[in-house]
């Protein structure tokens, strides 16, 4: 089978507290809301009209909405190192559709993340810093049982952990008008563990799913301080699977743009 599609979304949030408990350290906590939509087409092999051979054909679509709310805490230490923690809850709804059936999809999930980084100055351009990063993410998703018109379908629930080791190189360019531009490049190695689920059809037939994948992404982007209140940012990246022989090929492109404004 082969799946292709797109993911669109937005996020808005704000810091609710900034302060310091130790000299040279400072903290920020905040909340955010995010919305995402995924629209995926699935193609697979089906029997032809004469039932004599398999032919590639569209087998269905999945359209899924995700509504998320979360809170974060970031601690900055001397020299620019940081630790960032996130807790997020999500509600899902959408539809999985084939030529013969339609399954309404709903459920909920929870995600926690812990990330750390430490920058080092290197003589590779204007105020260049190289920042190794590490991150752990735990996620649980549970989807509700529904009926696709042919019988009950229980997608079940799953929990998994993703780990990331990455590095980011960033330059800082200060302009005469007071603007500060920070272009960067980065690369990450990801590993997913433990995501296993079993979908049950009509109370009996079970289809297990296990996802243990290794993947990489590379990206380039920028942040720009336009004045004392407004910052803009954007990035564009490419992701691809490392062990495609084990888990199947996976690749995609992505990008985002945003504005941060301080009142």
Automatic annotation (TrEMBL):
Task: Give the Autotransporter domain ranges.
Answer: 1-263
Cellular compartments per GO CC: outer membrane
Q: Which Pfam families match?
A: Autotransporter
The protein's name in its UniProt record: Autotransporter domain-containing protein
The opening ranks of the lineage are:
Bacteria, Pseudomonadati, Pseudomonadota, Betaproteobacteria, Burkholderiales
């Amino acid at each position: 089978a082969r799946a292709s599609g797109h993911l669109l979304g937005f996020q808005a949030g704000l810091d609710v507290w900034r302060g310091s408990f130790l000299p040279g350290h400072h903290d920020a906590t905040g909340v955010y809301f995010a919305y995402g939509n995924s629209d995926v087409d699935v193609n697979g092999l089906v029997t032809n009209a004469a039932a004599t051979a398999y032919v590639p054909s569209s087998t269905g679509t999945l359209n899924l909405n995700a509504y998320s709310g979360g809170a974060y805490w970031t601690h900055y230490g001397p020299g620019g190192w940081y630790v960032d923690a996130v807790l997020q809850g999500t509600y899902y709804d959408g539809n999985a559709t084939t030529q013969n059936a339609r399954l309404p999809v709903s459920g909920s999930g929870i995600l926690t993340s812990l990330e750390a980084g430490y920058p080092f100055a290197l003589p590779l351009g204007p105020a260049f810093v190289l920042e190794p990063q590490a991150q752990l993410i735990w996620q649980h998703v549970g989807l509700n049982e529904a009926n696709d018109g042919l019988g009950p379908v229980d997608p079940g629930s799953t929990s998994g952990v993703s780990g990331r080791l990455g590095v980011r190189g960033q330059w800082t360019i200060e302009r005469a008008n007071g603007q500060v531009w920070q272009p960067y490049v980065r690369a990450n190695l990801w590993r997913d563990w433990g995501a296993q689920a079993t979908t049950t059809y009509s109370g009996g037939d079970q289809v297990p799913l296990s996802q243990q994948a290794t993947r990489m992404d590379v990206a380039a982007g920028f942040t720009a301080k336009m004045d004392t209140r407004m910052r803009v940012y954007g990035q564009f990246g490419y992701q691809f699977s490392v062990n495609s022989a084990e888990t199947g090929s996976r690749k995609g492109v992505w990008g985002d743009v945003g504005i941060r404004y301080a009142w």
